[in-house]
Amino acid sequence: MNSKGSVFFLLVFLSLLIGLHAQTTTIDFESGDSGTNWAWTVTENGSNPALTFPVNPDNTGDNTSATVAQFTAEDAGNPWALCYTDDIDLFEFDATNSMVSIMVYKPAVSPVAIKFEGLSLPVEIQISNTLIDQWEQIDFDFSSSIGNTYNRLVIIPDFADRSQDNIIYFDNIVVPEENIIPAINDASLSDLLVDGSTIDGFDTDIYIYNVELADGTTTVPTLTATTTIPNASYQVNDAAVLPGTSEVVVTAEDGITILTYSIAFTISQPVVLDTPAPTPDELQEDVISIYSDSYTDIAGTNFNPFWGQSTQVSFEDVNGNNMMKYDTFNYQGTQLNGNQDLSLMEYVHIDVWTEDATVVLFSPISITTGEHLVSLTPINIGSWNSYDIPLTDFVGMTFIDIHQLKFDGQAGVTPSTIYLDNIYFWKAPVVAGSDATLADLLVGGTTIAGFSSIILSYDYELANGTPRIPTITATTNDPNASYVVNNPASVPGASAIVVTADDNITVLTYTINFTYAAATPVTPAPTPTADSTNVISLYSDAYQDVTVDTWSAVWDQADVVDELINTDNVKLYTNFVYAGIEFTSQTIDATSMTHFHMDVWTPDDTSAPSEFKVKLVDFGTDGSWGGGDDVEHELIFGEATLNTESWVSLDIPLTDFINLTTSGHLAQLIISGTPNTVYVDNVYFYTDNPVALGIPQNVAVLFAGTDITISWDEVSGATSYVVYESDTPNGAYSTVIGGSYIGTSWTGIAQSNRRFYIVKAANVPVR
Quick one: residue 175, left, alpha or beta (phi over 0 = left, psi -120 to 50 = alpha)? Predict the structure, then answer.
């Protein structure tokens, strides 16, 4: 008895162990293993570059795999750029396999989405990474989908808007393993397509469908299908004529079980416009009409200017009412006679009838603020659609100078046909004595930008340091209305223009929000004092600069322009989050340098927690990123170093960049921080411990046409040379501008006046 009891206990224990074992498999992308030999489809990703399987970019941390998957999320792609595979086995989520994980290595923080598709409704979970340029495992809990069945894995590795291509690596994807054995008698379909698109209302258990084809269709649509079980087969029996019925006959793997899906095709009847648009009921005095039989239209309108459109414009009579027809419509403009002031109007009315259009967008067009297209929705086919659009829906537009109208249907069925009627702008009738609107609003004698009587709030930027708010005046639409201007005590602040109607009851308040423009440097940065023979300059008027490929890389978040402060050139960064300064084409050897210098100036608040960061990146001996020998280090400067509206000189020992263990191939300088606006000058490396060098001997001067060449003997220990010039032999010498150095010679353009030259040896890299 004891022996049998022990055997029974052991069997139960083993059963529990088997039941508790996680039924999962790992896609590890190693050579010959799962993932690399699967079919992966990339879509929604610009040019859809294929998934590749390179060497692990960092196998020293949490992920020691040799091979990983690489996905390039393109700037031109959608935020949901993705890849998917159908090579995972059919599985059902249960309590042992509902935890899914993936390891990612990303250049930015953004959501990572894992999605499964198959026999059950798709399920998707998004979780953001928290680390940048490091391997990180993300876990997804699909326990809410237990009982669902799937056979497609979808990965969206960078679910966000992006302004540059992002390279993402992923690896070691843990997914459920196969736990469903397909039934050999399953003759169902998992998809049924008509001319390449899934039939409306498809369901694997629905066997009869009705499809209406466009009027005039004579060709039987092409039917394709996907069987639920791969080893099942199907045959399409097309309808002999239209209207008619096609069949998809599915035979299961057992060769016995058969299911038939029937698709009945009918032909739609043509839709005919036989009734005019509804008659509008706004009063003429509240309307400015563009096209309508009910009102007096503004004169001189051109309803068919040529803008390169395919649209054909014509006019038809429908039961005594004129309609405008856009045939083969893609987009169409209307040119008004001069600039129309529609600022007193509140709405635009449009009547649209169509038999096939799915999208119609509309916008007035202002001379000063352009267009803002608004969608006309909903669109009911075969009946008149009346739209009254508030002018406030046209965001950012002014209505004092409308000179054109635009209809656009390119986002839907193109070309299509639409009929238009009753295009007019209108406003609600004003009760006598209750008009508290303004006809004009002026700051310093000039109408405020974007003024409209229906826009109550405005922003106005004053020059920095303006001592007082300019005089504000206004004109009321009703001469009997009055207004009062209440100015703020200081700037920034808001002025309130309170308008009281003639009835002394109705009140409107217009607001002008005054702010100061950002301050700018009055004086340039301090002039550097380091000897040019000991300097490698990226940017300075005091030195000859090396080649810098860009001061704002395509992947950064900043705008940069060149500015002059007095006569000094500076770089101005605005919308500043981080900026990539790259010199990858000619990397810098700073091994003989001891310091990095940069002058910065900002108008923004530099008190804590404000900070400014400086990062140096060395690409290693291979001179390119990603070779395994790259090093970098970032320093952070806070309120103890920074200062608002004052030049700050960052003079940093290179030894402070602790992780920058090599500096022979510097390729990037990355600056970042919280100031929104930053001026930068005098960016250079220098040494405060130069090696003593000899004086170049046997200096010779040769003239050839307009060129002058100066040559000299090589100096032991020198890595470069600098030529200086002066008007007098004992005067102040400055570095020659231009020309070219080749070995122990320099060639430039000879000057028309007498010049004196000095040659010095240097031990900084050749420029």
Answer: beta
